[in-house]
Amino acid sequence: MPGNACIFPIPGVGPWEEILKNPQLWHCRFDGPDMERLVKGRERIYLGRFWNDFSANPKNFDEASRVHYAKLYARPNAMHDGFEQFHAFDQDAVDDQAFLTNGPLPIAVPAVGGEKSFGPEMVVVAKATFSNVQGAVIPDSRHWLMEENPKATVTAIQDFIR
Fold first, then answer.
1. 56 in helix, strand or coil?
2. Residue 57: helix, strand or coil by DSSP?
3. How many Å separate Cα 61 from the centre of its chain?
4. Separation between Cα atoms, residue 132 and residue 59, nearest integer Å
5. Which tens digits make up the pLDDT trace of 17-64?
6. Cα separation of 146 and 151, whole Å?
7. Domains and CATH numbers, the chain
8. Which helix (H) or strand (E) holds 114?
9. Which of 91, 113, 114, 133 is the 20 to 30 A CA-CA neighbour of 57?
10. Contact, 97 vs 14, CB < 8 A?
11. Backbone angles phi, psi at 131, to 5 degrees
């Protein structure tokens, strides 16, 4: 979904199976022939659940952003494409586990998480996958880092780039 930074652990790495069992993350397994029909014309309702439940403070995800994203997801194939991101997780998990048999990737990556979400756990998972991890926890945020705390998020990314 738009608006998120690196806020989700890596499929197949670390506590991945436990994450998938979390009932709040049911959308990772939202599947079947009817899912797109159930959401069509109700994109704002569907997305509103995530904006509200995955925010440290839903008021930080402003109305203009909600209107913007709902309009984008109402476009043809947009929800389908969004669902495909989650459908790829199972294969991603298999591929990631196979790849890691050779050890972590020797590259630098940022591991950024919201204070009220995966926060410091992002670093732990990333260190199992990459050899050079720079972590940051964004205060007063959960999933929507840029919407909830844009200044801290931009600073964390700029610090990594430097």
1. coil
2. coil
3. 15
4. 35
5. 888 888 888 887 787 778 999 999 999 999 999 999 999 999 988 999
6. 8
7. 16-161 (3.40.50.1820)
8. strand 105-114
9. 133
10. no
11. -85, -20
- Where residue 131 falls among pLDDT bands split at 50, 70, 90? very high
CB 138 within 8 A of CB 6: no
b/e burial code for range 103-124 (CB count within 10 A of at least 16 → b): eeeeeebbbbbbbbbbbebbbb
Strands 130-138 and 105-114: parallel
Rounded Cα distance between 70 and 78, Å, is 10
How many beta carbons lie within 10 A of that of residue 47, not counting itself? 21
State the average pLDDT over residues 66-89.
93
What are the residues facing 156 on neighbouring strands? none
CA-CA distance, 11 to 16, in Å (whole number)? 6
pTM to 2 decimal places: 0.81
Distance separating alpha carbons of residues 75 and 34, to the nearest angstrom: 18
